[in-house]
Write a structure and sequence with these properties.
With 185 residues, this protein is mainly alpha-helical. Helix content is 72%, strand content 6%. Strand 1 and strand 2 form a beta hairpin.
Length: 185
């Protein structure tokens, strides 16, 4: 069983079983829509087998990335920065698949968010997952998120609250950048 060593007020302590909790939590999340469909049909949850497959792949990718980041990072700030970045990417994908971040689901403007995620991924690889480089990559990702809002504003046709909510998605990228900057010190 894997452990993560952390420093707390009481000295060194081990957190055991984090992988089982991570992967078990993902399985539990995937089980929720099935339970809702079976026992609470009035909830309006209607997932197809493809919906379950896509979410399963997405959750497996998130868990794999979190597993990698938790094992790779030495400091709590690095691990937190990595987790925030992964969860920001997950939220971006999930929102776009569910309803679309801009306009309606399938609006061509939502394809711009693939670029935001590509910047985060390529930046992380170019940084070789080192804290200082990751801080820069996540800051550029936040700027890319805001650039998408600027493009959407120029295109027109989007509600102000959509643009504001989309701009707010830059905040986790900035938080991640700050945590990585702290880890680099």
């Amino acid at each position: 069983m894997h452990t993560i060593e952390t420093r707390g007020q009481g000295g060194r302590r081990s957190i055991r079983g984090w992988r089982a909790l991570l992967w078990g939590g993902a399985a539990g999340l995937l089980l929720l829509p099935a339970l809702a469909m079976r026992f609470y049909p009035q909830a309006g949850v209607d997932w197809s087998p493809l919906d379950f497959a896509v979410m399963g792949v997405l959750l497996a990718a998130v868990c794999g990335l979190l597993d990698f980041g938790l094992r790779r990072g030495g400091s709590p700030a690095y691990r937190a920065g990595f987790a925030v970045a992964v969860l920001a990417g997950f939220a971006t994908i999930w929102a776009n698949l569910a309803v679309g971040m801009l306009g309606r689901e399938g609006d061509p403007a939502n394809a711009l968010f693939a670029g935001v995620l590509a910047i985060a991924a390529v930046g992380s690889l170019l940084a070789r997952f080192r804290a200082a480089g990751m801080a820069k990559a996540m800051a550029v990702t936040a700027l890319a998120q805001l650039a998408v809002v600027g493009v959407a504003l120029a295109l027109g046709g989007f509600l102000p609250r959509e643009l504001l909510m989309t701009a707010c998605f830059a905040l986790p990228w900035l938080l991640s950048a700050g945590l990585f900057r702290r880890a680099a010190r």
